[in-house]
Design brief:
The chain is α+β, with helices and mostly antiparallel strands and about 90 residues long. It is built from four helices and three strands. The protein has a single domain, classed as Orthogonal Bundle (Arc Repressor Mutant, subunit A). A three-stranded antiparallel β-sheet has the order 1-3-2. A hairpin with a 2-residue loop joins strand 2 and strand 3. The termini are far apart.
Length: about 90
């Protein structure tokens, strides 16, 4: 029996990736997302999630995010520390 907490539905993954369910199905069909078919539904193992998220972001996007986080921490560091203390 499959433990449901170890798997995501296509709808849950679509919400996480902010794409449509159809886009998730297309990625499953092309092999970009590894999924298991159970009955009529596909499920995605949570251990595969980091690979899926890594494929969605390009290295350029990751660098842009890292730069934005660094800039935010530099400019608002004290404010963020105070908010974290609350």
């Amino acid at each position: 029996m499959i433990n449901e907490k170890e798997y995501l539905s296509t709808s849950e993954l679509a919400k996480m990736l902010r794409i449509s369910r159809i886009a998730v199905f297309n990625k499953i069909k092309t092999g970009k997302i590894k999924a298991v078919k159970i009955g009529r539904n596909f499920v995605i193992h949570k251990s595969d999630l980091s690979g899926i998220l890594g494929e969605v972001l390009t290295s350029e996007q990751k660098t842009e995010i890292d730069n934005a986080v660094s800039r935010t921490a530099r400019e608002y560091g004290e404010t963020l520390r105070l908010l974290g203390a609350e």
